[in-house]
Amino acid sequence: xxxxxxxxxxxxxxxxxxxxxxxxxxxxxxxxxxxxxxxxxxxxxxxxxxxxxxxxxxxxxxxxxxxxxxxxxxxxxxxxxxxxxxxxxxxxxxxxxxxxxxxxxxxxxxxxxxxxxxxxxxxxxxxxxxxxxxxxxxxxxxxxxxxxxxxxxxxxxxxxxxxxxxxxxxxxxxxxxxxxxxxxxxxxxxxxxxxxxxxxxxxxxxxxxxxxxxxxxxxxxxxxxxxxxxxxxxxxxxxxxxxxxxxxxxxxxxxxxxxxxxxxxxxxxxxxxxxxxx
Length: 278
Prior knowledge:
Elements: E1 2-9, H1 14-30, E2 35-41, E3 55-58, H2 61-67, H3 76-85, E4 90-95, E5 99-101, H4 106-113, E6 117-125, H5 132-141, E7 145-146, E8 149-150, E9 156-165, H6 170-187, H7 193-203, E10 208-210, E11 215-217, H8 222-238, H9 243-252, H10 265-274
Parallel strand pairs: 1-2, 1-4, 2-3, 6-10
Antiparallel strand pairs: 4-9, 5-11, 6-9, 7-8
Helix pairs in contact: 1-8, 1-9, 2-3, 3-6, 6-7
């Protein structure tokens, strides 16, 4: 079974591309054959160094705008990208740029071949969250149905840094797209609509499993990881490594940092006031 590892990287921020390069190297270091790494991007030239090991698919601004849908919901782009690259003969593992694969992905690939689906991890029970935005979302969706999936007090929010479906499971992403559109209509484009749509759609199969056993998602400590990624990429460049050598370097020198760093209010104030990054 072919496994397609899918990245979507767009916009001007250079750090997104640095992170994506490192994430791709970590996939190449740990993903079994047969495999394909596909990068959908507005800046294909930024991946030229990796072009012999990956497939690059340019995407234009008009397509991204269309993928936002009738309500112009930004994160809907992710769902459309996954749907566009799902296949009957391949598993699709979508990865955010801020992930790093830690170990052999063979067990995850085998599970997808047997009908499992995956997201990065279950984050919290939506009905029990104390965050104001989550409480507002739960009030809007409690005891309602979205794309035939019922939401209740036992519904979990999953982290969508990794989204994986097996061959022929494109309909699950289509269900998530429909649920996302319905959630946007019900909540006024809540910024978690795409994540929650995926959470309920994949969990409804009864086969959703966490990918955190193999993959780290460092969204809670991007500055720290970007600093370490920059150091490693400088080493790769300075030593003129091949792609194979770079993959081995990333595999043999894993970045060890906390995945989440909780900032104090005064740290955030200093960053905003003086433009200081930790």
